[in-house]
Amino acid sequence: QVQLVESGGGLVQAGGSLRLSCAASGRTFSNYAMGWFRQAPGKEREFVAAISRSARSTDYAGAVKGRFTISRDNAKNTVYLQMNSLKPKDTAVYYCAASGSSYTALRMNIRAVAYWGQGTQVTVSS
User: Fold this and answer.
1) Edge-to-edge strand ranges of the sheet holding 68-73
2) Nearest Cα residue to 14 out of 90, 105, 103
3) 75-103: buried (b, 16+ CB within 10 Å) or exposed (e) per residue?
4) Which of 105, 89, 124, 84 is nearest to 35 (CA)?
5) What are the backbone angles phi and psi of residue 88, rounded to the nearest 5°?
6) Cα distances (angstroms) measured from residue 73 to each of 42, 123, 126
7) Of 44, 47, 48, 86, which is most buried by a Cβ count within 10 Å?
């Protein structure tokens, strides 16, 4: 089992920044590709970003590319999502995810996620 706990969400004005963190415990963190997903009210959960086990490779949804940056620190068992130039349409609950598959699988198949965090609310006001 892997336990994931997100933090760092909140209310921010459009154009502002937030940094989400996800602390993992349980099994070896570096064995898992990690990702972030989000879910807005009335919408399906969608892929945001993913990072490989080694942190050498990343992947982003088109809507956030160039504004969001995913990173991880395997020594601290933590994955981050730096969100800049936030827009009202970024408002959602953001979920951390761990996968035993390749990081590239997270974009294509939400069922590649083995473990989910509880989510953290991000609200961007206009």
Assistant:
1) 2-7, 18-26, 78-83, 68-73
2) 90
3) eebbbbbebeebeeebbbbbbbbbbeeeb
4) 105
5) -55, -35
6) 33, 26, 33
7) 48
